[in-house]
Amino acid sequence: MTRADYHRQLFLSAAIFNWLVGFGFIFLYRPVLGVLAPETLPQHTLFLHLFAVVVICFGISYLQISRDCKRHPDLIKQGALAKAAIFFMVFGYWLGELIDWKLLSLAAVDLIYSLLFIECLRYQRQQAAPAGPATNNSAKSNNIEQITEGSKHVI
Q1: Is residue 69 a contact partner of residue 76, using CB atoms and an 8 Å limit?
Q2: DSSP secondary structure letters along 75-109
Q3: CB 93 within 8 A of CB 99
Q4: Residue 154 within a domain
Q5: pLDDT tops 60 at residue 154
Q6: Digit-coded pLDDT (tens) for 123-143
Q7: Range of the domain at 101
Q8: Contact call for residues 79 and 58 (beta carbons, < 8 A)
Q9: Angle in degrees, CA 113, 102, 18, rounded to 5
């Protein structure tokens, strides 16, 4: 599997993960939250459903990224930031003993995706970087040789 194939699969799996979570929070929120965080069952589901819609939309973005990772570095950055933010928000609630480890373990998946997205960005940046210093040094030495040759003729 090539690195490009790996990144395609990574973002496709992130899309599927987001859709499962998003649709789960819309259609199965009582059993899902009943298992993950029973203490967070809302009286009104509006904000939970709004959050779920955003999660689903990010899943659509991940599908778009999976089709051509190089064309969407800004979406990858947003995804990495959003997934890290979700983890740290849930982590804060866990530290405050407002939720237990089950919801934290689901959020840990987001942290893992965030780190993998960052790795993808670094790889893309590395691939887009110009060739190493040897090329730059040879260009500089060519310029020096031209200057030296020119001064020989002037003197």
Answers
A1: yes
A2: HHHHHHHHHHHHHHHHHHHHHTTSS-HHHHHHHHH
A3: yes
A4: no
A5: no
A6: 999 999 886 565 555 444 455
A7: 3-130
A8: yes
A9: 35
Residue 80 in domain = yes
Six token digits for residue 62? 């991940």
Task: Provide the token pair at 56.
Answer: 């689903």
DSSP state, 155? -
Domain count for the chain, please give it. Answer: 1
Residue 63 CA, chain-centre distance (Å), reads 12
Asked if the structure places residue 16 within a domain, the reply is: yes
Continuous H helices in the chain: 3-27, 29-36, 46-67, 73-95, 101-128, 133-154
Over residues 60-94, the pLDDT tens digits come to 999 999 999 999 999 999 999 999 999 999 999 99
99 assigned to some structural domain: yes
